Amino acid sequence: MLIESGSPVAADTRIGISLTINGEARQLQVAPWTTLLDLLREELDLTGSKKGCDHGQCGACTVLVDGVRINSCLALAVMKDGAAITTVEGLAGLANRGAGSDGLHPIQEAFIEHDAFQCGYCTPGQLCSSIGMMNEGHAHTRDEIREAMSGNICRCGAYTNIVDAIEDVMQGEAAR
Amino acid sequence: MNRFEYVRAGTVAEAVQAFASGAESRFIAGGTNLVDLMKYNVERPDRLVDITRLPLDSIEEHEGGLRIGALVTNATAAYDERVQARYPVLSSAILAGATGQLRNAATMGGNLNQRTRCYYFYDEATPCNKRQPGSGCAAIGGVNRIHAILGASEHCIATHPSDMCVALAALQATIRLAGPEGERQLAIADYHRLPGDAPQQDTNLKPGEIVLSVDLPAEDFSRHYTYLKLRDRLSYAFALVSVAAILELDADVIRTARFALGGVAHKPWRDAEAEALLQGRAPTREVFEEAADHVVRHAQPQSQNAFKIELARRAIVRGLTQAAAGTPQPLSDKRIA
Amino acid sequence: MAHSISIDGVDRHVGAARSRVDGPAKVTGLAKYAGEFDAPDLSHGYVVSSAIAKGRITAIDASAAEAVPGVVKVFTHENRPRTAWLDYNYQDQVAPPGSPFRPLYDDKVHYSGQPVALVVAEDFDRARYAASLLRIGYEAEAPETDLTRQQDLAYVPPKKRSGIKPPPGARGDADGAFDAAPVRLREDYRQAPEHHNPMEPHASTVVWEGDGRFTVYDKIQGVSNSQSYLMAVFGLKKDDVRVISPYLGGGFGSGLRPQYQLFLAMMAAQVLERSVRVVLTRDQMFSFTYRPDVLQTVAVAAAEDGRLQSVRHDAISGTSRFEDYQEVVVNWSGILYECENVSLNYKLAQIDTFTPGDMRAPGAVTGVFALEMAMDELAYATGQDPIALRLRNYTETDHTEDKPISSKELRACYAQGAERFGWQARNPESRSMRDGKELVGWGMATGVWEALMQKSSAQAVLTADGRLEIGNSTADLGTGTYTILTQIGADTLGLAMEDVTVKLGDTSLAEAPLAGGSWTAASSGTAAMRACREIAAQVFTLARGMENSPLANVDFERVAFRGGRIEVTDDPSRSVTLIDAMRAGGLDRIEAMGSAESDPGQMKKFSHYTHSAIFAEVKVDEELGQVRVTRIVSAIAAGKILNPKTARSQILGGVVMGIGSALHEESMLDHRLGRFMNHNLGEYHVPVNADIYDIDVIFVDEEDQANPMGVKGLGEIGIVGTAAAIANAVYHATGKRIRHLPITIDKVLE
């Protein structure tokens, strides 16, 4: 059903929302308790966004909502009605400038080049978080990048390589 | 997560009305704590009132100070130029908490109303008076190195986890509320409460009240301030102890001194007597130690957190020193100034 | 180069920094992990965990859960299907001696967080919701999880765990020599229990293929272990169950043994005759294996000049009530240094938790931490530089086995590490160095791990389009196995890396052991090289047999495989492409198998170890207790390095986890409840980005004959000794010896 301001939607009703996901407009029916992460992973088969803790404590689920990085595990999908979501699957599509020959976003290429991951499970979150962080524009030095990226845990310990990759992209952007 | 009704409110009146007509309603905005708690079955609302579309997301000049809408995200508030220029202690405190992602979602109102991070509160398998009144407090005699040393009770030793609220306490912010009985205001000091025998109540909000804004008074503490946070890793951890300190110095005399502690009590902890000790004195280590000693004079340790008393004492001294020297604790450079 | 991969001795990819071949899949989100595979009609299981640590379940009321629309079934001990009866059937390939935990076996609760029910529903959300409605009654008994209260009951494990060497017999008279020595130290050391916490929670997707056949996607460090476990427990034939695990979101040892979600998913799939996925929550990641609590005492005695007179290392490790988990904790103290009087003792004591398990460098992390702190203490007691003390007691013999060590470039590690770190500028006095408000400390330690090889096989197929596929059943947990096998295949057959595909983690591929113990590169790498060499020989025969072959009358030893061609090494103008050779031979594909196992002669003659020297700089705000590890130099001697880029990452990962051990990680037990209380990533602290400053990795040259590639393995060595180097640096900075890890603010303030 469609939602009407101020009127309760009964607990057993799916609610119609519209989301733009990786550039594609989607009309979806969601249960009110479905998180954005579960919507992506369980219902839309976009399993790139990872569930590492489901409580906002690891950052693996980080996606961009209207360009802003958030933990998708703590966002109810129904509350994001009307938003544009970018997941790791859509990053290459974001790269309208400076995309590499393989169509990857520069940050994706930099992560490969700097070996900024091992198991790869935190990587989609790290990538989305990096882009979100660059959009925010508050981090410039290595110390600032470290602090700004501390919401993304990497148990394989690739942190120094992650910072190298981000610095590389930031320098590339600055040079452009 | 349990089943619940969902209401999307368009106006404050609608939100308050929708809340009141549910049996166990909760307002939801950023969701960073509520959704977390619902997944642990700690919160089981039967109705969620989505307030994200209410017009409470701006920062405005107000009586010489600033009025920060309840739905302004923590990130927006922290990076707002006016906040940074006039209330840098608030900016620092917000940025010392959580992570970039969480601060982008979490709101001012939600930060005020976040629940404790006591292990037992989150764990259904254990007794907790805050989660289930009357079940007991397992933290007492249990794993409690992160728990309260001030103002706790035999029913609850949890701490309030916010960094932002510690700065708001020092800034003497006012919280503007709306509820079924209309609007009212609460001083930040009266907003949170000590656990006493009703630890299930974190705040003095009345049922169904919603935060409209956080109002900051027309004062300038941009020169002598700091937010110093000590924790178990260098970022993304709750405070063992934190200090928000703001000073007004006149030559070499303290005219005004306010400081609040985080991580030590069920609410941001201020001690008016200790602040008064600083008034009119020179900003020296001895004077700061005197004030710090005064704050911890009634501190009560738990089985694993006696260190927090000494840590709080030293943090106060260092925090006041930083504030007096005009060398606030930076966020990214982890050397303690 | 003594150990070349290429036929002509010139490696092009092996030994060079190459980007991870699985990189594109991982940065685009296309890499699929165990809980992400879909199946028609997939159902979802949610595990309900025990609220008590010990006792029995008196009642389970599932009525409310079953009434939730979409709930398929609630499994408990009361209605579980019959599975194998004997303990033996539940013992996986790396199980310690004992009676393995059997999920939903009966009403007994053995530990807090034990799975007591599985709720299966049409989707994840409904399974989770229904699980919250289950009402379980318990009769609780008082648990005992405090190892210090059980140590009087400690025992020498009656049955040794396969692959784990018990401590060697005493050498000389350690106690007598201790009493007689002029410099003596005896101290207790303890490292907090830790949970592995790979980023990906454990998950299994069991796909019902009809007729009792299953495809299983499991988070496991070796698919054959899951397969054989499922066969034994559920009475399946090998052909009935294929286990696949292409990517793991980290393991660190937590995925060596099949974990309970696999049992539960298969149980449900078999009963329901439909596909089932079970994914654990982060909290449930604290409900199985962990690095054990170990109480250690190290007594070292030396002559005035620092020469060791006596080493005694005693350890009591926690284990569960049902299995005797064992790891090598104390033996290292008999291996690393020259000493005639050595006594090493290792016992177990039981507590009411799940069985501890292997976690990155199991045993060595624990034991070497204690030894290397004791060595630092001895350096101060004898007034020696910590490196000088170690060099004074240097040995190239493994006295626990009475064998020479095949290669030990540890001196080079000390020298190169010290130089890179700037160790010579160190003022040996503690509390002597400052940077502003912070005390600065420089500490070092030695690391050691066994260089192992396991029996392994690999298959390779060269197809007529000139593409090579290599495969075996081992796992790449982020270690870089896909990449090094690609390099090996490319160099052996002279192909571009893009022309080589590696498949791993599938029981339909050639059999390989679990990925663990740092043995994968040596074992699977050698097997893959041999399979590719076999193909090289065959395709060379085809090429030489071609009509008017440019390679006619040329020996295999005189050709090089490069650029997709077989060339005469001395005369590259004479060549045949692999594609032409196959075409001429009329072959679409050439298949070969390769196998590898350690050479018994070599094993009998030598001991094999990797070594490292770790240097740490800490900055300590003494007043407030904050410790920062601002610099680490880790110098590694691990034989041949196949890929410096991924190799470096392995060491970085070990170092970061070592920093975690030193400063952050601690699973905190409430002994009244017998429960780990900080069971989430908010309160179980692993290092975050802000905690990690500069880490410098050095690979020193080391020639080794341990295996045909001269490779020793890198998965563990990066962590061993790191915590000791940091703790030693904290002492140097502050004058405080903190012998209980992690070094948190409270301990610095004490």
Q: Can you tell me about this structure?
A:
Chain A: Pfam families: Fer2, Fer2_2. Chain A: Keywords: Iron, Metal-binding, Oxidoreductase. The complex is a heterotrimer of chains A (176), B (337) and C (750). Chain A is of the alpha+beta class and 176 residues long. Chain A folds into two domains: 15-90, Beta-grasp domain (Ubiquitin-like (UB roll), Roll), CATH 3.10.20; 91-175, [2Fe-2S]-binding domain (DNA polymerase, domain 1, Orthogonal Bundle). Chain A has helices at residues 36-43, 91-94, 106-113, 123-136, 142-148, 159-175; strands spanning 15-21, 24-30, 62-65, 68-71, 84-86. Chain A has a five-stranded mixed sheet, with helices on one face. In chain A, helix 3 packs across helix 6. The longest helix of chain B is centred in the C-terminal third of the chain and has 19 residues, at 307-325. In chain B, 30% of the residues lie in helices and 21% in strands. In chain B, helix 11 (272-278) packs antiparallel against helix 12. Chain B is an alpha+beta fold and 337 residues long. In chain B, the strands form three sheets. Chain B has a five-stranded antiparallel sheet. In chain B, a hairpin with a 2-residue loop joins strand 4 and strand 5. Among the domains of chain C are: 23-29 and 453-597, 2-Layer Sandwich (Aldehyde Oxidoreductase, domain 4); 364-452 and 598-750, Aldehyde Oxidoreductase, domain 4 (2-Layer Sandwich), CATH 3.30.365.10. Chain C has a seven-stranded mixed sheet with strand order 3-5-1-11-8-9-10, with helices on both faces. A five-stranded mixed sheet of chain C has the order 14-13-12-7-31, sandwiched between helices. Chains in contact: A-B, A-C, B-C. At the A-C interface, helix 1, helix 3, helix 4, helix 5 and helix 6 of A face helix 1, helix 4 and helix 17 of C.
Write the layout of secondary structure elements.
The complex is a heterotrimer of chains A (176), B (337) and C (750).
Chain A: E1 15-21, E2 24-30, H1 36-43, E3 62-65, E4 68-71, E5 84-86, H2 91-94, H3 106-113, H4 123-136, H5 142-148, H6 159-175
Parallel strand pairs in A: 1-5
Antiparallel strand pairs in A: 1-2, 3-4, 3-5
Helix pairs in contact in A: 3-6
Chain B: E1 5-8, H1 12-20, E2 25-28, H2 34-39, E3 47-50, E4 59-62, E5 65-69, H3 74-79, H4 81-86, H5 88-96, H6 100-105, H7 108-112, H8 119-122, H9 164-171, E6 174-179, E7 182-187, H10 188-191, E8 210-216, E9 224-231, E10 239-250, E11 253-262, E12 269-270, H11 272-278, H12 285-295, H13 307-325
Parallel strand pairs in B: 1-3, 2-3
Antiparallel strand pairs in B: 4-5, 5-8, 6-7, 6-8, 9-10, 10-11, 11-12
Chain C: H1 23-27, E1 43-49, E2 55-61, H2 63-66, E3 71-76, H3 87-90, E4 108-109, E5 115-121, H4 124-131, E6 135-140, H5 147-150, H6 174-180, E7 183-191, E8 203-208, E9 214-218, H7 223-234, E10 241-244, H8 260-272, E11 276-279, E12 294-302, E13 308-319, H9 332-335, E14 342-350, H10 364-382, H11 386-392, E15 397-398, E16 403-404, H12 410-421, E17 433-435, E18 438-450, E19 456-463, E20 468-471, H13 481-493, E21 500-503, H14 520-544, E22 559-562, E23 565-568, E24 571-577, H15 578-585, E25 589-596, H16 600-605, E26 609-621, E27 626-637, H17 644-664, E28 669-670, E29 675-676, E30 694-699, H18 722-734, E31 740-741, H19 745-749
Parallel strand pairs in C: 1-11, 7-31, 9-10, 13-14, 20-21, 27-30
Antiparallel strand pairs in C: 1-5, 2-4, 2-6, 3-5, 7-12, 8-9, 8-11, 12-13, 15-16, 17-18, 18-26, 19-20, 19-25, 22-23, 23-24, 26-27, 28-29
